[in-house]
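Researcher: I'm preparing a figure for a lab meeting and need a structural model of a single chain. I don't have an experimental structure, so a prediction will have to do for now. The sequence is pasted below. Please return the structure as tokens so I can convert it later.
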Amino acid sequence: MYGDSATVRKILTELGDTWAVVGLSSNQQRAAYGVAAVLQRFGKRIVPVHPKAETVHGEKGYASLAEIPFEVDVVDVFVNSDLAGAVAEEAVAIGAKGVWFQLGVIDEGAFDRTRAAGLEMVMDRCPAIEIPRLR
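Model: Understood. Here is the structure written out token by token.
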């Protein structure tokens, strides 16, 4: 696992409540849909990021991180590992404070680069599993 429990706690409780969820669409069968709902229940503002730019869970979607017209605190990544590094670089470019690669999303080079850029990062974990444990 990449990202110790202190980093998990910091991302979930200290970095801010606006989470861009990359790969989130209105497809209820996808993991991103359920995870975004859990994040909302725990007080996070989710921002869907998907090429379709769909509204999901009542929140307006955007086609890319760069199109979001407000500050994003954490970028939660639900894309294949081979695409995740580019998303992490976009997260750095937009000034996010943290990046979260979901279960099964692994790119060690992106992890190292993102941490070197000063962002908090967790990889191969799920915030919907971790956030209830904080209570």
